[in-house]
Amino acid sequence: MNAAEPSRFTFHVSRPYRGRLAPSPTGLLHLGHARTFWTAQQRALSCGGTLILRNEDLDQARCKTQFVSAMFEDLRWFGFQWKEGPDCGGPFGPYCQSKRGEFYIAAFEKLRASGAVYPCTCSRLDVLRALQAPHVGEDEPIYPGTCRPAVSSDFNVQSSKLEPAQDGRRDRNKLSPRINWRFRVPDGEPISFGDGSYGPQEFIAGRGFGDFIVWRHDGLPSYQLAVVVDDAAMQITEVVRGQDLLKSTARQILVYRALGLTRPNFYHCPLVTDESGQRLAKRSDSLSLRALRAKGIEPEILRKSWNVVDSGSALQ
């Protein structure tokens, strides 16, 4: 279903609240990131919980050192405070995805052993997109099932196990130079969840979304697998992110289920748009936090119109 207007939605959790900021250093952070991250921080504070910072730097071709440095500087300038992260450590590290290869390999091997995934040789473009969180207008097309085997097929799921990389190089984790791995969705099954901002959501597997990539041939997990593994390992109880990831939540719920993991609550925020109504992107340099800071604009002024404390009922 399409997202409706935001509505208040209350969840009850038994675990101590743990939220996260999860930027990807492929460019400068902009006002849209700040708006969503501020909501995440306010919700953590309202619950007396813990906020962590995770550096989602899987895409080494696009992640740059200067963007990592800018990420820390701009977040601190804006007023963000985290209790665990790459700079301060914590009990659930490492907090950089590029250093968490063993976690992803273990999860993938479990999926492969259970028959939840299958090898695929299709679409280089799909593979490139798999590293990144999809945005409005950029969601992958429904996979036609070209490489999908019959449920009873045996494609030797136990062969060619991955080995942890010793030096951070991708090619240590390759299965085959041509094979990627897709998660088989349960065709026709409604995937439902309650969103803390947008209320009840439902997507039909195989219609609203199709089989999706979880492991790339170059030894990297997809965004959909990595965030599930990390949020579970770091004991995140609520994921706060942009509305454009509502459909991704349905995919990730299936991965949680296949891995036997407890899924968190979800809270999706309205997107910040520019003057033309387009979603802000990292190429929106004029609205980057770095540019706004250079203009002498104070964070308090930017936050003044954000009614984020009342943007949804706090978790109790």
| Separation, N- and C-terminal Cα atoms | 28 Å
Number of helices: 8
Examine the secondary-structure arrangement and name the CATH architecture: 3-Layer(aba) Sandwich
CATH fold-level assignment: Rossmann fold
Strand order of the largest sheet: 3-4-7
CATH superfamily annotation: HUPs
* Structural class by helix and strand composition: alpha/beta
Q: How many domains make up the coordinates? A: 1
Oligomer category: single chain
Low-confidence blocks of residues: 1-12, 154-159, 165-172, 309-316
The total count of strands amounts to 9
Beta-strand portion reads 5-15%
Radius of gyration: 19 Å
- Mean pLDDT level: 84
Profile the largest sheet: 3 strands, antiparallel
Helix content: 25-40%
- Tell me, briefly, the overall form: globular
The level-1 CATH class: Alpha Beta
